[in-house]
Amino acid sequence: MSGTTPQVVGFQRPVTARASDRPPWRFRLQGSDTTWAIAFLIPYVGVFLAFVVYPITFGLWMGSDPVLYSTLFSDPLYPTIVVNTLLLAAIGVNVTMFLAFLLSAYFIQRGWWIRTLLAIYLVPWALPALTAFLSIHYMTVTEYGFLDSLWRAVTGEDGPLFLVDRWLAMTVNIVSYVWKWMPFWTLIFIAGRMSIPQDVYEAAEIDGATGWRRLVHVTFPLLANVYLVSTLLFTIWTIGDFNTVYFVSYGAPARLTDVLATYGFHQAFDFGYPNLGNAAMMSALPILIPAVLLLMRRIRTTGVQL
Amino acid sequence: MSTALTARRVRHLRFSRMLPGKIAAALFGILLLIWTLLPVYNMVLVALDEEADEFTGAIWPGDPNLDSFASLWNEDNFLLEHFWHRFGNSIELGLATMLLTVAIGSLASFALGRMRLRGSRIIGDLALITYVLPTAFLAIPFVHIMHVYGLIDSLWSVIASQVAFATPYAILILHQYGKLIPLELDESAKVDGATPWQVYRRIYLPLMAPALVAVGVYALLLAWNEYLYQYLLVLSMDSATVAVVINQFFNSDEAPWNYMMAIAIVYSLPPIAIYFALRRFMVAGLALGGVKG
User: What is the arithmetic mean of pLDDT over B171-176?
Assistant: First the structure.
């Protein structure tokens, strides 16, 4: 779920989940054991029904009025919002994944200084989004923010006002998003790389594949599944992302950089139209539902462990 | 004698050939450090600023001033009243989420992975789907249902939401780790007459300890780093958490920015401390899948 610390690792292994997941049973389950199993599951099922199924069902019901959507689509701001969300997803996700993939090669080297660097590099992951993004907001919000002050110190001229232009502000949002999430996905790729057995690399070296060719022809195909699953998952979370835009640009200028989640939030809680806000978020379902189904199928058929 | 000279010369040659690569790697490392820590540096810079109302445009802490932290400690500003009480609320939120997630998640993954039950795969799939969903999209319905449950404005509504979001992932991780524990242990205990609860308490839990720590840390950080649900579900300042306070500073026109950054630093310290202390467990959770590969 967005805002969480997700963990995805996989290694290409076409295995049907059924055979590997069922434990071998040698004792028949006694009747009382079934009772125990149900008792153990009741807390989770209770939480699931009360706090996941109910809100989802209610949200779908809230968003079932077609009038809401005609209102939504006639809002001149709505297409802008959709474009912003798609940009954050298309650019933010792919840049993050690509850089994370490359950086995982850097961090797989041995050495105490690499490990120390990795520990510090992961700090954006550990920091609360609230505080980190607020800091970035204040770095960019006026001509006395840190970035402009640095520019002035170096060149003597005033730097750009980042949050006054829609595209500049969107760029700041996307860069902040990459900053926050790249460490996490780097870690995922590092774990994926570590699961590749050494003999594969040794065999490749014998065949003459080293350096760049090894990366393209050996490492990447083996990690392709992790890459795909991670990209899908991250895209789903990005479409629903709230923290980045809310804290970094706060929709500046004039709500032109809002994304679906922040737009829906403002509609529901600042302007008093919760149904409209909910509809805005539901309007992402045509993309979200296929993405979730595709992801589930991918996980099921390739045995990626999450 | 000549062999030793040759060995040294070989090492020299190898080192000098690798040197440009090492320098490039070191330079890159420094750039990466700057990129990573720039916003953190800015937090400290603003917090140490003595000017409360405007930025001085400085890039070094020219006149480091710990006033903002002192005010925080003494709860000087009107927005800072009961700050430490709210810090306690944040801690309560984090700990309750952690304990409930570990308890509910371990019970569920024990039942799903080690007790034969039809439909266990469906529950596992449902957990996976829950994990995949973006939480912000559920915020609006969540506010409504908390009104229905009568939990609105209580910290428990936030705890409920965070447990609901953290538990699926906990189940997935615990399930993976649980596969490493042989079922023969369970079976031999059953032969000795143990009830499932005893197997759970005396065999499963102790052996799962590292995974339980990883899951607990995950849930704790999830609750601590979360903002939206805290803001929406807690209305009165009595149950407010620090995240809500920071946002009030953010939205207020008169709020001193150096105080806000001081709060931000104080609020960021626990997750950073936990990360540095327990990162082996957190990373081990990731490597679980790698081990299986």
Answer: 90
Nearest alpha-carbon partner for A177 in A229, A248, A107, A121: A248
Q: If you measure CA to CA, which chain A residue comes closest to B105?
A: A44
All residues of chain B having their beta carbon less than 8 Å from the beta carbon of residue A139 are 38-39, 42
**pTM for this prediction:** 0.87
Cα dist from B89 to A10, B71, B94, whole Å: 38, 20, 9
pLDDT digits (tens, 9 = 90+) for A114-161: 888 999 999 999 999 999 999 999 888 887 788 888 888 888 888 888
- Whole-angstrom distance between the N-terminal and C-terminal Cα of chain A? 13
- B64 and B96 belong to one structural domain: no
Residues of A in contact with B266 (CB under 8 A): none
The nearest alpha carbon in chain B to A54 belongs to B145
Residues B31 and B166 in one domain: no
**Boundaries of domain holding B30:** 2-71
CATH number of the domain that B153 lies in? 1.10.3720.10
Would you call B138 and A56 a contact, using CB atoms and an 8 Å cutoff? yes
Position A84, amino acid: N
- Point out the domain boundary residue: B51, B71, B91: B71
| B55 and B123 housed in the same domain | no
What is d(CA B94, CA B218) in angstroms, rounded to the nearest whole number? 10
> At residue B8, does pLDDT exceed 80?
no
Q: What gap in Å lies between CA A181 and CA A103, rounded to an integer?
A: 13
Q: What is the ipTM of this complex?
A: 0.87
Indicate if B44 and B126 belong to the same structural domain: no
Q: Please report the domains of chain A, with CATH numbers, ordered by start residue.
A: 30-62 (no CATH), 68-302 (1.10.3720.10)
What's the pLDDT at B54? Answer: 60
Closest chain A C-alpha to B70 CA, distance in angstroms: 19
Query: Does B212 or A142 have the greater pLDDT score?
Result: B212
In this predicted model, which residue has the larger pLDDT, A278 or A13?
A278
User: Do the chains contact at A195 and B137, CB–CB below 8 Å?
Assistant: no
Q: Are residues B102 and B198 in the same domain?
A: yes
* Structure tokens given for A185: 């996905």
